[in-house]
UniProtKB/TrEMBL annotation:
Gene3D superfamilies reported for this sequence: Alpha-D-Glucose-1,6-Bisphosphate, subunit A, domain 3 (3.40.120.10), Alpha-D-phosphohexomutase, C-terminal domain (3.30.310.50)
Species, as recorded: Lentzea tibetensis
GO BP terms in the entry: carbohydrate metabolic process
Protein's name according to its UniProt entry: Phosphomannomutase/phosphoglucomutase
Recorded family membership: Belongs to the phosphohexose mutase family.
Family matches, as InterPro entries: A-D-PHexomutase_a/b/a-I, A-D-PHexomutase_a/b/a-I/II/III, A-D-PHexomutase_a/b/a-II, A-D-PHexomutase_a/b/a-III, A-D-PHexomutase_C, A-D-PHexomutase_C_sf, Alpha-D-phosphohexomutase_SF
Domain Alpha-D-phosphohexomutase alpha/beta/alpha stretches: 8-130, 153-252, 259-366
Entry keyword set: Isomerase, Magnesium, Metal-binding, Phosphoprotein
Domain Alpha-D-phosphohexomutase C-terminal intervals: 371-445
GO molecular function: intramolecular phosphotransferase activity; metal ion binding
Pfam family for this entry, one: PGM_PMM_II
Length: 450
């Protein structure tokens, strides 16, 4: 029996091609997924990695041999696959390893209507079946394979949700990182009042220019420089599968995902007064403050797309945002789409004459550390040491919804979480000033890394 525990993660499947992930394994994943969802069909998309078309084809073979049809949409961003799943009301599989290096690939799975599939909602069963190698279904007619281009429908749907046609002309630098943004941006932005200066739109799964992970500051250096060079109104960067977007203002300064979450939340609340907004516990405290000030209800949740989507379904939330630049919309089947978030930001900018730095300043009230990772062998022991240290202080509150969140009397706070896949503790700190952030960060790290 195979052991697939190393590649079946909490929310997706991901591994090194040829070593952990090959056509035989993927074929069994396809068969197992078909058995889980039952049919009538599965929609499949893939990114621009060299290995993606072949792996997608193997997955499709596994699906059809179980008597389930396949709708192949070919090249796609992850949110385009979610669109197809929602529009066609079919379960879906997206072949991508997001921002991981070229030797990796993976599968993101969803049920019909882009509903998430995680360890507790089917992924564990898929792993168990694939480990035992799924036999071909007996006595059934193999499913058919149909190819369908969804790009234009996807673009039209997004532009229906955010209408920018009457906005002022903007000059925008877009860094696609040689990922799927280079495929979707030209279609989505066509006909809009934008002058687009493209960076790295050539689809190349070897990522020759930089990693397609815009949350790492080193990967937005080119974007920042180009924005300043051409005098752009803003810059937008997408990750490899283009489901996340990162924004810089006219000075090339990063706009935090928390500020984007707050900005989009305010726009969505104008359409649905009193609506619920989901935010994970690592987003800035400015997010729930601003949501409340604009008449909305802020609901805090754990980190991770399955938790966000489940909470959105439970509460009927209109929007959700994470510190990692994932943005979820009720009007997009509660799925995450960086492209729709980018359109909202550009709409907010184009509707008036102020620069982006002025607009986003209202949504960025505090200083933050960003995620600081520490390699530790005893995650539980280090977390306990932090809990014991700060739990003994007056006026401190502790919260264990996801890892350990510590709130101090002066309004500063931090969250410390163990990675699910690596021997890491992840620290996020927020305080009134950069100096206060640095002091608290260093105080916590001294204990974590002792």
């Amino acid at each position: 029996m195979r052991d697939l525990s190393g590649i079946v993660k909490a929310y997706d499947i991901r591994g090194v091609v040829g070593e952990q992930l090959d056509a035989d394994v993927v074929r069994d994943f396809g068969a197992a997924f078909a058995r889980l969802v039952g049919g009538p069909a599965v929609v499949i998309g893939h990114d621009m990695r060299d290995s993606s078309p072949g792996l997608a084809a193997a997955f499709a073979e596994g699906v059809t041999k179980q008597g389930v049809d396949v709708v192949s949409i070919g090249l796609a961003s992850t949110d385009m696959l979610y669109f197809a799943s929602g529009k066609l009301n079919l379960p879906g599989a997206m072949f991508t390893a997001s921002h991981n290096p070229a030797q990796y690939n993976g599968i993101k799975l969803c049920r019909a209507g882009a509903a998430p599939v995680g360890q507790d909602t089917g992924l564990g069963q898929i792993r168990e079946d694939a480990e035992n190698e799924v036999p071909d279904a007996e006595g059934v007619t193999p499913g058919s394979l149909q190819e369908r281009d969804m790009l234009s429908e996807y673009a039209a749907y997004l532009n229906q949700l955010v209408d920018l046609r009457q906005n002022r002309q903007l000059k925008i630098v877009v860094d696609a990182g040689n990922g799927m943004g280079g495929y979707t941006v030209p279609e989505v932005f066509a006909g809009l009042p934008f002058e687009i200066i493209p960076l790295y739109f050539e689809l190349d799964g070897n990522f020759p220019n930089h990693e397609a992970n815009p949350l790492d500051p080193k990967n937005i250096v080119d974007l920042q420089a180009k924005v300043r060079e051409v005098g752009a109104d803003a810059g937008v960067a997408f990750d490899g599968d283009a489901d996340r977007c990162f924004v810089v203002d006219e000075h090339g300064e990063p706009v935090s995902p928390s500020a984007i979450t707050a900005l989009v939340a305010v726009r969505e609340l104008k359409k649905d007064p009193g609506g619920t907004i989901i935010h994970n516990l690592i987003t800035s405290h400015a997010v729930p403050e601003i949501v409340t000030e604009h008449g909305g209800k802020a609901v805090r949740t754990r980190v991770g797309h399955s938790f966000i989507k489940e909470e959105m379904a439970r509460t009927g939330a209109i929007f959700g945002g994470e510190h990692s630049a994932h943005y979820y919309f009720r009007d997009f089947w509660r799925a995450d789409t960086g492209m729709l978030a980018a359109l909202h930001v550009l709409a907010a900018l184009g509707e008036q004459d102020s620069p982006l730095s002025d607009i986003t300043r209202d949504y960025a009230r505090y200083a933050a550390s960003g995620e600081v990772n520490s390699t530790v062998t005893d995650q539980a022991g280090r977390l306990k040491a932090i809990k014991d240290t700060y739990g003994a202080k007056d006026g401190v509150t502790l919260d264990e919804l996801d890892g350990l969140t510590v709130a101090l009397p002066d309004g500063s706070w931090f969250n410390l979480r163990a990675s699910n896949t690596e021997p890491l503790l992840r620290l996020n700190v927020e305080a009134a000033t950069p100096e206060a952030v640095a002091a608290l960060r260093d105080e916590v790290l001294a204990i974590v890394r002792a």
